[in-house]
Amino acid sequence: VFEHIQQAPEDPILGVTVAFNKDPSPMKVNLGVGAYRTEEGKPLVLNVVRQAEERLLADRTQNKEYQPITGVAQFNKLSAQLILGANSVAIKENRVTTVQALSGTGALRVGAEFLAKHYGKPVIYVPVPTWGNHNKIFPLGGVPVKPYHYYDPKTRGLDYQGMIDDLRAAPVGAVVLLHACAHNPTGVDPTEEQWEGIRKVIRSKQQLPFFDCAYQGFASGSLDTDAHAVRSFVADGGECLIAQSYAKNMGLYGERIGALSIVCRSAAVASRVDSQLKLVIRPMYSSPPAHGALIAASILGDRDLFADWTVELKAMADRIISMRHQLYDTLKARGTPGDWTHILKQIGMFTFTGLNPEQVQFMTREYHIYMTLDGRISMAGLSTKTIPHLADAINATVLG
Ligand code: LMR
């Protein structure tokens, strides 16, 4: 009965790691998936995560019972505070409902299914380009995707006017997906002033913002600064959805830990929304796993661990920024043709190099450098040792 099944293609991002793992070359470098690596090219488990785990292990009152459908209550409360701010009026007024989710992807999917069932205008506008999984999560969750202009290949920056024009032309009430900070894959974010312009258009058209917040703390190194866009939309009193992930900022990739918050106009509505989110989650996976939520809640809820976390987070963000400078300087020193200032200007984990698929394939074939076909490189995968090799590869492919 399964004879007719065709071989599916590998995932455009995670498939890069599959190909990387098969390559026996000692010079290979994986700049595909957005996962932080140390200067030695190793995955990093944060010290605060180790400490939180030790505390959990020592606590004999912990058991392995089911969590509630919406997850660990303390984790949900602290996650909402992290993104909205400890003094958030919306939280004080009990207008925010938060559920634990299977990282950012799970939060987006639960949000999509909730909107498909309860929101009158289930269509979502996403930036071009966007994280590839957005284009799959939303339609499969019952919300068709439409594009809006975002990245301008000519300037390698934001096509602000194109974005504003598209949002103005989008229907009243449409859902708009916004990357809260450190846009993936381009590393191009609106300025604070541009965010204000975007907010005004979205609110004037009663559109519904859905923030994907996977990099809080990774863009600027400051958790509060990176929450600016989301907080400005919540401060105006309107509704929004927020998907949070702790994969990058706590290095909890495999724990699949994140949250979905829905900011409503009243406490009564938030409570009803919460009851409906349970009906989305229960038939999907019943209730979420506890471990990642307990780690994150220990860090978020303990003053010392939280302070240590911000230091470790800043160190990761700073190493990435230093990689930007080193790569830029090395390309300059090689005399590589082209303007590479976008490497310095773009922020967060990724640089959108502007290299085309043929150039990417050349670099993989000849230099064993693995990256996504859209020309995105994960700066977090680079080190002082591997930068000269990457610069050689870029130089060779640009010179053709
Ligand atoms: C990425 O874009 O590389 C990350 O968000 C990991 C993923 O799941 O795609």
Task: Give your account of this protein's structure.
Its EC number is 2.6.1.1. Belongs to the class-I pyridoxal-phosphate-dependent aminotransferase family. Keywords: Aminotransferase, Pyridoxal phosphate, Transferase. Residues 27-394 form the Aminotransferase class I/classII large domain. This protein is of the alpha/beta class and 400 residues long. The protein has two domains: 14-44 and 317-399, Aspartate Aminotransferase, domain 1; 66-301, Type I PLP-dependent aspartate aminotransferase-like (Major domain) (Aspartate Aminotransferase, domain 2), CATH 3.40.640. It has helices spanning 14-22, 47-58, 73-84, 89-92, 103-118, 134-140, 160-169, 192-204, 223-226, 228-235, 267-285, 291-301, 303-334, 342-345, 357-367, 387-399; strands spanning 29-30, 96-102, 124-128, 145-149, 151-152, 157-158, 175-179, 208-213, 240-245, 257-263, 350-352, 369-370, 376-378. The protein is globular. The model has no long low-confidence stretch (mean pLDDT 96). Bound molecules: (2S)-2-hydroxybutanedioic acid.
